[in-house]
Design goal:
295 residues, mainly beta, 7-stranded antiparallel beta sheet, 5-stranded mixed beta sheet, 22 strands, 11% helix, disordered N terminus, binds zinc ion
Length: 295
């Protein structure tokens, strides 16, 4: 079931970080497209490969990482892909490469260069009492173990697409969220950047799966509190943190717009809000950008 209020959410983002669509004509009537040739840390790139015939045996590679390509219809001459530019990826030039075998069995490839610029993220300087910023050794150990497990989850690429259509926002009635990429400097010491989007909301507000997928984690973690992670397939995951209640279990398949929990203030937070994260092939991306993706 789809929640109409979520699907209707209109997002307005400053598109300043997206410049110059890439359109490259390659051998054998293959065209490689990207929505931007210049992008910023934490962005999502939308890739397309267009051919005159149904395309098969194509592989995508972004800076040495395999990117799944899929077709929307069996006989479609278009392949789609989503490339995540991690929010800490070093600014510079990177290659998007598509390779395939032509009918004669020869290896062919076509590349496009993408410039990644530094993201414009807010910086917050805070001075707080030491005991609030320094967890004890046991807590540090626990947090590190949890981070390791999360990395292993996000590195797992399920070779199947669970989602269908547009991604939704995780709360009803919201149009945008904030804090993505924020660098926090606590007592002069830089902390890891804020990898999600925060939505202030009252505790108990229902939280919805932004797309269909398989729940791969639903448990209480040190920093993010009660956390649900959904695998949407092809290396795409969404994360919902600080929940007061979790209404999903690992292994469970959920639909787009299905309730998976309630907003809360669990974990290391100052007040109730939903923290929503998006990971694409391990790259931490501004989740609001996937909502704008054309299907
Ligand atoms: Zn957050």
């Amino acid at each position: 079931m789809r929640i109409a209020g979520l699907a209707a959410g209109v997002l307005v983002l400053a598109p300043g970080h997206l410049q110059g669509q890439v359109l490259k004509t390659c051998e054998g009537g293959v065209t490689v497209k990207l929505n931007a040739g210049v992008t910023a840390q934490g962005s999502l790139l939308i890739a397309e490969v267009v051919g005159t015939k149904p395309l098969s045996g194509f592989a995508g590679d972004w800076d040495g990482r395999a990117i799944p390509l899929w077709s929307e219809g069996e006989k479609s001459g278009i392949l789609h892909g989503l490339i995540g530019v991690d929010l800490e990826k070093a600014p510079g030039g990177y290659t998007w490469k598509v390779s395939w075998k032509n009918p004669a069995g020869e290896e062919k490839s076509c590349s496009a260069l993408v410039t990644v610029r530094a993201g414009k993220f807010p910086i917050e300087r805070l001075t707080v009492e030491k005991q609030f910023v320094q967890p004890d050794p046991e807590q540090v150990k626990r947090a590190e173990e949890e981070q390791k497990r999360m990395r292993a989850i996000f590195q797992t690429v399920t070779p199947e697409r669970y989602w269908d259509g547009k991604f939704l926002l995780p709360l009803k009635g919201v149009t945008t969220g904030g804090n993505f990429g924020r660098r926090r400097i606590l007592n002069g010491e830089a902390r890891s950047p804020h990898a999600g989007v925060d939505f202030p909301a009252l505790a108990g507000t229902p939280v919805f799966a932004t797309q269909a997928g398989k729940v791969v984690l639903a448990e209480e973690l040190f920093y993010s509190g009660n956390t649900v992670v959904i695998d949407h397939g092809y290396g795409i995951y969404t994360l919902y943190a600080h929940l007061s209640a979790m209404e999903a279990e690992p292994g469970q398949m959920v639909k787009a717009g299905e309730e998976i929990g309630k907003v809360g203030a669990t974990g290391r937070v100052t007040g109730p809000h939903l923290h929503w994260g998006l990971t694409v092939e391990s790259a931490r991306v501004n989740a609001l950008q996937i909502v704008q993706r054309e299907p």
